[in-house]
Amino acid sequence: MSHKLKVGELRESYLTDEDIWRVFTIVLSSKSVKSSTYKYALIKSLIENLYQVNEQYELTYDQLAYSFTKIYWNLIIHHNLDKQNRGMSARVTTILKDAKSKYGIPSDFIFDKIDDAIQVKVVSEVKKTMKEHVFGALYGDTKGIFYAFNHKGEYFRLNPAVHQFMLNYQRLVVNLTNYHMAVMIEELNEVQSINYLLGKVESIARRSSLRPFEQLLLRHFEETCFYCGKILSDIKRETNVDHFIPWSFVQSDHIWNLVLSCKRCNSSKSDKLPERHFLENIIDRNEELNNKTTDQAVRNMMINYKEKKIIMLYDYSIKNGFDAIWTP
């Protein structure tokens, strides 16, 4: 019973893409025992945190539990898709519904809008469930070759080859996981439209508002558009926050990938990649952010940032089909 494991060692380090695809397709297929949507949610949580790993390819349980909680809050509370398990109710459903009731949280609140202290409590409860039912289950399905984990140390270490694979095929992995998760939710909740569910499963990682990032960036930099240099102002909401590398690829909000932009550039750029010379500019900008050592909020947001990460992100986004290059 792999889900009962408290420690999982990495069983193999060298893997080819073919080896990884073989195991990954088994996880998604009917050959894998899927009593709940947990495995899909863990894969989605990994994707959201791909660029947050440290030098040892590690993520904390708290990082994964936060993403995992957001996924299920969106599905269970925001969209009332509360059947996430075959048979008895999934523990995560009970945790989130109890929290909603206890703290009087409206159903239309997405997780990021909830009070921080409540978020911490809910994530802590979800993390306990992940220890019991999630980390070991996917470890068993992936034959112990995708990752290692340790409940006592609360760390999750990706196989470097699997990390590279997920970067190379990120868009495809996202689409496959979303589709199969939506199929299972459709079956469990007797919802008739798979397209309806795909929309709910896909729209998870984005925060409720980028306004806090906007205020932070305005505090530290001149009020000018990162792309065209136009002076920004709050009049008629001319100031926008843009994902330098499109959100639809990154699937998360990191300050080192966010820039201040005028409304025109933000609208024109849309889901495109900026010309490569802008990459040098954001690297310089991020170096400035890193040097603002007196600002604890900035320091926390930049913990796992490295210059090579955003270069890698830029290059992998092109490999994943984001090859429409934009310039102001």
Automatic annotation (TrEMBL):
Gene3D superfamilies cross-referenced by the UniProt entry: 1.10.30.50
- Record Pfam families: HNH_4 (PF13395)
Task: Report if keyword Hydrolase is assigned.
Answer: yes
Molecular-function GO terms, alphabetical: endonuclease activity
- Keyword Nuclease: yes or no? yes
The alphabetical list of record keywords is: Endonuclease, Hydrolase, Nuclease
Q: In this protein, which residues make up the domain named HNH nuclease? A: 213-267
> Do you know which CDD domains this protein is assigned to?
HNHc
Protein's name in the database: HNH endonuclease domain-containing protein
Q: Tell me what organism the protein belongs to.
A: Robertmurraya mangrovi
